[in-house]
Amino acid sequence: MAERPEFTHKRERHGVIGPFSGRQLVLAFAAVIVAGVVLVGITTPLGNTGNAPGAADPRPTAYILSSPPPVGLKVGATAPEFAVTNDDGSTYQLTDLNGAPIRLADLRGKAVWVNFWTTWCPPCQSEVPILREVSERYRDRGLVLVAISVQETSPADVAAYAARYGLGYTIGFDGSGKIFHAYKGFGLPTQVFIDENGVIASIVGAPLDEAGAAAHIEAILPAGAGSPGASTKPASTASPSPSGTP
Protein backbone atom coordinates (compact mmCIF):
# COMPACT_ATOMS: atom_id res chain seq x y z
CA MET A 1 0.00 0.00 0.00
CA ALA A 2 1.49 3.28 -1.18
CA GLU A 3 2.36 5.82 1.41
CA ARG A 4 0.17 8.84 1.50
CA PRO A 5 1.89 12.23 1.14
CA GLU A 6 2.30 14.01 4.37
CA PHE A 7 -0.51 16.52 4.99
CA THR A 8 0.57 20.01 5.95
CA HIS A 9 -1.61 23.02 6.71
CA LYS A 10 -0.50 26.52 5.65
CA ARG A 11 -2.18 29.61 7.05
CA GLU A 12 -3.81 31.83 4.45
CA ARG A 13 -1.90 35.04 3.96
CA HIS A 14 -3.89 38.21 4.53
CA GLY A 15 -3.02 41.77 3.39
CA VAL A 16 -2.47 44.67 5.74
CA ILE A 17 -5.95 45.90 4.81
CA GLY A 18 -8.17 43.31 3.23
CA PRO A 19 -6.50 41.78 0.18
CA PHE A 20 -3.98 44.64 -0.20
CA SER A 21 -0.38 44.24 0.80
CA GLY A 22 1.64 46.89 2.55
CA ARG A 23 3.59 47.60 -0.64
CA GLN A 24 0.39 48.11 -2.62
CA LEU A 25 -0.92 50.53 -0.01
CA VAL A 26 2.31 52.53 -0.03
CA LEU A 27 2.24 52.81 -3.83
CA ALA A 28 -1.40 53.88 -3.80
CA PHE A 29 -0.73 56.53 -1.13
CA ALA A 30 2.24 57.88 -3.11
CA ALA A 31 0.08 58.14 -6.24
CA VAL A 32 -2.53 60.16 -4.33
CA ILE A 33 0.16 62.55 -3.04
CA VAL A 34 1.62 63.08 -6.52
CA ALA A 35 -1.84 63.72 -7.98
CA GLY A 36 -2.54 66.28 -5.25
CA VAL A 37 0.71 68.15 -5.90
CA VAL A 38 -0.01 68.28 -9.63
CA LEU A 39 -3.55 69.54 -9.01
CA VAL A 40 -2.34 72.32 -6.73
CA GLY A 41 0.33 73.28 -9.26
CA ILE A 42 -2.06 73.70 -12.15
CA THR A 43 -4.73 75.56 -10.18
CA THR A 44 -2.55 78.03 -8.26
CA PRO A 45 -2.25 81.49 -9.93
CA LEU A 46 1.22 82.56 -10.98
CA GLY A 47 2.40 85.27 -8.61
CA ASN A 48 0.73 86.76 -5.60
CA THR A 49 -2.05 89.23 -6.28
CA GLY A 50 -2.84 89.89 -2.62
CA ASN A 51 -2.31 93.13 -0.77
CA ALA A 52 0.57 91.96 1.38
CA PRO A 53 3.84 93.93 1.21
CA GLY A 54 5.92 92.80 -1.75
CA ALA A 55 2.95 91.21 -3.50
CA ALA A 56 2.89 91.19 -7.30
CA ASP A 57 1.01 94.07 -8.90
CA PRO A 58 -2.05 92.67 -10.76
CA ARG A 59 -2.46 95.77 -12.96
CA PRO A 60 -1.64 95.62 -16.70
CA THR A 61 2.02 95.85 -17.62
CA ALA A 62 3.61 97.25 -20.76
CA TYR A 63 3.58 95.35 -24.05
CA ILE A 64 7.31 94.88 -24.71
CA LEU A 65 8.42 95.45 -28.30
CA SER A 66 12.21 95.19 -27.97
CA SER A 67 15.10 95.09 -25.52
CA PRO A 68 15.75 98.30 -23.56
CA PRO A 69 18.31 100.60 -25.24
CA PRO A 70 21.73 100.84 -23.58
CA VAL A 71 21.08 104.51 -22.76
CA GLY A 72 17.59 105.88 -22.18
CA LEU A 73 16.20 109.35 -21.70
CA LYS A 74 17.22 111.09 -18.51
CA VAL A 75 14.95 112.91 -16.11
CA GLY A 76 16.10 116.53 -16.01
CA ALA A 77 17.20 116.55 -19.67
CA THR A 78 15.51 118.53 -22.42
CA ALA A 79 12.92 116.40 -24.18
CA PRO A 80 13.71 115.50 -27.82
CA GLU A 81 11.82 117.40 -30.48
CA PHE A 82 9.13 115.52 -32.42
CA ALA A 83 11.38 115.40 -35.49
CA VAL A 84 14.23 113.17 -36.65
CA THR A 85 16.89 113.76 -39.30
CA ASN A 86 16.88 110.94 -41.86
CA ASP A 87 20.03 109.42 -43.36
CA ASP A 88 19.51 111.44 -46.55
CA GLY A 89 19.38 114.70 -44.59
CA SER A 90 15.62 115.12 -44.83
CA THR A 91 13.46 115.58 -41.74
CA TYR A 92 10.92 113.14 -40.42
CA GLN A 93 8.32 115.27 -38.65
CA LEU A 94 5.58 113.96 -36.38
CA THR A 95 2.14 114.88 -37.70
CA ASP A 96 -1.38 114.58 -36.37
CA LEU A 97 -4.07 112.45 -37.99
CA ASN A 98 -4.81 115.25 -40.46
CA GLY A 99 -1.19 115.61 -41.52
CA ALA A 100 -0.47 118.82 -39.56
CA PRO A 101 2.95 118.93 -37.84
CA ILE A 102 3.17 118.55 -34.08
CA ARG A 103 6.15 120.44 -32.63
CA LEU A 104 7.21 120.27 -29.01
CA ALA A 105 8.63 123.79 -29.32
CA ASP A 106 5.11 125.05 -29.95
CA LEU A 107 4.04 123.67 -26.56
CA ARG A 108 6.47 125.64 -24.39
CA GLY A 109 4.65 127.02 -21.37
CA LYS A 110 2.38 123.98 -21.28
CA ALA A 111 2.59 120.78 -19.27
CA VAL A 112 3.01 118.01 -21.86
CA TRP A 113 2.06 114.38 -21.34
CA VAL A 114 3.50 112.21 -24.13
CA ASN A 115 1.89 108.79 -24.41
CA PHE A 116 3.23 106.23 -26.91
CA TRP A 117 0.54 103.68 -27.73
CA THR A 118 -1.22 101.63 -30.44
CA THR A 119 -4.84 100.69 -31.01
CA TRP A 120 -4.05 96.94 -30.91
CA CYS A 121 -2.08 96.98 -27.63
CA PRO A 122 -4.20 95.54 -24.74
CA PRO A 123 -2.58 97.57 -21.92
CA CYS A 124 -2.91 100.70 -24.09
CA GLN A 125 -6.60 99.93 -24.63
CA SER A 126 -7.17 99.53 -20.90
CA GLU A 127 -5.56 102.92 -20.30
CA VAL A 128 -7.53 104.90 -22.92
CA PRO A 129 -10.47 105.80 -20.61
CA ILE A 130 -7.97 107.21 -18.11
CA LEU A 131 -6.22 109.32 -20.76
CA ARG A 132 -9.57 110.63 -21.95
CA GLU A 133 -10.80 111.46 -18.44
CA VAL A 134 -7.64 112.97 -16.99
CA SER A 135 -6.66 114.99 -20.07
CA GLU A 136 -10.09 116.65 -20.09
CA ARG A 137 -9.85 117.40 -16.37
CA TYR A 138 -6.49 119.17 -16.63
CA ARG A 139 -6.84 120.79 -20.06
CA ASP A 140 -7.86 124.17 -18.64
CA ARG A 141 -4.94 124.07 -16.23
CA GLY A 142 -2.33 123.95 -18.98
CA LEU A 143 -2.02 120.24 -19.84
CA VAL A 144 -1.56 119.02 -23.40
CA LEU A 145 -1.75 115.28 -24.00
CA VAL A 146 0.06 114.10 -27.13
CA ALA A 147 -0.75 110.43 -27.70
CA ILE A 148 1.67 109.15 -30.35
CA SER A 149 0.43 106.13 -32.28
CA VAL A 150 3.40 103.90 -33.15
CA GLN A 151 3.73 101.99 -36.45
CA GLU A 152 0.01 101.71 -37.20
CA THR A 153 -1.30 100.93 -40.68
CA SER A 154 -2.72 104.35 -41.53
CA PRO A 155 -3.88 107.61 -39.92
CA ALA A 156 -7.42 106.76 -41.06
CA ASP A 157 -7.44 103.58 -38.94
CA VAL A 158 -6.32 105.50 -35.86
CA ALA A 159 -8.82 108.27 -36.57
CA ALA A 160 -11.64 105.72 -36.72
CA TYR A 161 -10.58 104.36 -33.32
CA ALA A 162 -10.40 107.89 -31.88
CA ALA A 163 -13.87 108.73 -33.22
CA ARG A 164 -15.33 105.49 -31.87
CA TYR A 165 -14.16 106.21 -28.32
CA GLY A 166 -14.49 110.00 -28.34
CA LEU A 167 -10.80 110.83 -27.92
CA GLY A 168 -10.52 114.61 -27.98
CA TYR A 169 -6.81 114.91 -27.24
CA THR A 170 -4.00 115.36 -29.78
CA ILE A 171 -2.99 112.14 -31.53
CA GLY A 172 0.25 111.92 -33.50
CA PHE A 173 0.92 109.34 -36.21
CA ASP A 174 4.42 107.86 -35.95
CA GLY A 175 4.14 105.42 -38.84
CA SER A 176 7.84 104.57 -38.97
CA GLY A 177 8.35 104.52 -35.20
CA LYS A 178 11.22 107.02 -35.47
CA ILE A 179 9.87 109.35 -32.78
CA PHE A 180 9.26 106.36 -30.51
CA HIS A 181 12.90 105.30 -30.93
CA ALA A 182 14.13 108.89 -30.49
CA TYR A 183 12.42 108.77 -27.09
CA LYS A 184 14.20 105.44 -26.35
CA GLY A 185 10.95 103.53 -26.11
CA PHE A 186 10.86 99.74 -26.00
CA GLY A 187 7.37 98.98 -24.65
CA LEU A 188 3.81 100.23 -25.00
CA PRO A 189 2.51 102.31 -23.43
CA THR A 190 5.44 104.56 -22.55
CA GLN A 191 4.73 107.87 -20.81
CA VAL A 192 6.94 110.95 -20.70
CA PHE A 193 5.95 113.97 -18.61
CA ILE A 194 7.49 117.26 -19.74
CA ASP A 195 7.28 120.54 -17.82
CA GLU A 196 6.54 124.01 -19.19
CA ASN A 197 10.24 124.54 -20.01
CA GLY A 198 10.51 121.40 -22.10
CA VAL A 199 12.38 119.44 -19.41
CA ILE A 200 11.60 115.78 -18.72
CA ALA A 201 10.12 115.49 -15.23
CA SER A 202 9.31 111.76 -15.18
CA ILE A 203 9.18 108.65 -17.39
CA VAL A 204 6.88 105.67 -16.88
CA GLY A 205 7.21 102.49 -18.94
CA ALA A 206 3.80 101.04 -18.05
CA PRO A 207 0.09 101.88 -18.00
CA LEU A 208 -1.05 104.38 -15.36
CA ASP A 209 -4.12 104.36 -13.18
CA GLU A 210 -6.03 107.59 -12.67
CA ALA A 211 -4.34 108.51 -9.40
CA GLY A 212 -0.89 107.85 -10.82
CA ALA A 213 -1.53 109.93 -13.93
CA ALA A 214 -2.86 112.81 -11.83
CA ALA A 215 0.20 112.76 -9.58
CA HIS A 216 2.61 113.03 -12.52
CA ILE A 217 0.53 115.81 -14.08
CA GLU A 218 0.29 117.83 -10.86
CA ALA A 219 4.10 117.85 -10.73
CA ILE A 220 4.45 119.56 -14.14
CA LEU A 221 1.52 121.98 -14.27
CA PRO A 222 2.59 125.54 -15.11
CA ALA A 223 2.82 127.93 -12.20
CA GLY A 224 -0.52 129.59 -11.44
CA ALA A 225 -2.39 127.12 -13.63
CA GLY A 226 -5.69 127.29 -11.81
CA SER A 227 -6.98 125.99 -8.51
CA PRO A 228 -5.59 122.66 -7.26
CA GLY A 229 -9.16 121.81 -6.38
CA ALA A 230 -9.82 121.19 -10.05
CA SER A 231 -8.02 117.88 -9.71
CA THR A 232 -10.33 116.54 -7.03
CA LYS A 233 -13.02 115.41 -9.44
CA PRO A 234 -14.28 111.96 -8.41
CA ALA A 235 -12.73 109.05 -10.24
CA SER A 236 -14.52 107.93 -13.35
CA THR A 237 -16.65 104.84 -12.99
CA ALA A 238 -16.07 103.90 -16.61
CA SER A 239 -14.08 100.74 -17.08
CA PRO A 240 -12.81 98.82 -20.10
CA SER A 241 -14.88 95.99 -21.47
CA PRO A 242 -13.68 92.40 -20.85
CA SER A 243 -12.01 92.46 -24.28
CA GLY A 244 -9.76 95.30 -23.12
CA THR A 245 -11.24 97.98 -25.38
CA PRO A 246 -12.46 101.26 -23.87
Secondary-structure blueprint of this entry?
Blueprint: H1 22-43, E1 63-64, E2 83-85, E3 91-93, E4 95-96, E5 111-117, H2 122-138, E6 143-150, H3 155-164, E7 170-174, H4 178-182, E8 187-188, E9 190-194, E10 200-204, H5 210-218
Give the beta-strand count.
Answer: 10
Termini separation? 105 Å
User: Per CATH, which architecture of the domain at 63-232?
Assistant: 3-Layer(aba) Sandwich
How would you sum up the global shape?
elongated
Order of helices and strands: HEEEEEHEHEHEEEH
What percent strand?
15-25%
Name the CATH superfamily classification of the domain at 63-232.
Glutaredoxin
Largest sheet: 6 strands, mixed
**Mean pLDDT across every amino acid position:** 81
Which fold does the CATH topology of the domain at 63-232 refer to?
A: Glutaredoxin
* Strand line-up of the largest beta sheet: 4-7-6-5-9-10
Class per helix and strand makeup: alpha+beta
Poorly predicted spans = 38-57, 229-245
The level 1 CATH classification of the domain at 63-232 is Alpha Beta
Number of helical regions: 5
Q: Bin the helical content.
A: 25-40%
Write up this protein.
It is a single chain. The protein is an alpha+beta fold and 246 residues long. It has a domain at 63-232: Glutaredoxin (3-Layer(aba) Sandwich), CATH 3.40.30.10. It is built from five helices and ten strands; from the N terminus they run αβββββαβαβαβββα. It has helices at 22-43, 122-138, 155-164, 178-182, 210-218, and strands at 63-64, 83-85, 91-93, 95-96, 111-117, 143-150, 170-174, 187-188, 190-194, 200-204. The strands form three sheets. The chain has a six-stranded mixed beta sheet. The protein has a two-stranded antiparallel ribbon with strand order 1-8. α2 links the parallel β5 and β6 (143-150). α2 (122-138) crosses α5 (210-218). The longest helix is centred in the N-terminal third of the chain and has 22 residues, at 22-43. The chain is elongated, with a radius of gyration of 31 Å. Mean pLDDT is 81; it is low at 38-57 and 229-245.
